[in-house]
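Before relying on records like the one below, remember that each one covers exactly one chain. Contacts with other chains, cofactors or solvent are not represented anywhere in the record.
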Amino acid sequence: MSVGARSVAESAGRGRRGARWVAAVAALAAVTVLAVVGVGWWQRGHLPAVAGERLRDFPAVEQAGLDDTQKRIVEVLRGEFARQPAGTEYSEGVEEPWCADFVSWVLREAGRPLTNPNSGSWRIPGVYTLTEYYQQQGRFESPGYRPGVGDVVLYSETSPFSQHTNFVIAADGDMITTVGGNEFGRITIHRYRPAELSGLVGYGRL
């Protein structure tokens, strides 16, 4: 084989190897994307309920009778449920259980910020302090209270949620629908009967 022919053959071989390498990288990238999408789909659709039923999609919320603040809370919750950011977005970058941070952040975004009784900050990072806040404000209600949209549910360590807090977005008959952060590390929606739930401390009224 002449030098010229050998050079052409080598170039062709390198071209084929390059094409195979590019194809392999593309295939790996496709598998990675499918895996990420698949995990996200599985998490949204297959995580168990903490109590009652876990809803996969954000439900329609009846707007009649809601004031502007309640409507804003629902819209903020709807947006964050779709977005599913890291919990540190609600905790000012602090790595910690973030359910109360989520409540604080949503209320601030809706124009009804909390005031931490210890620091004066908009953020109340602990459920115990959040309960104290509502008690001091005269807005704490017992478990027998019928909550409304935008009210905050407060749970003790003995509840299925453990010590936790989340929002009410619907109350129908003896059922309530809640949206909370740091439930399985995500923002999730549950529908359950409060009367059947142990460890429900009470509610923070909007």
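Residues 2-9, 22-27, 29-44 have pLDDT under 50 and may be disordered.
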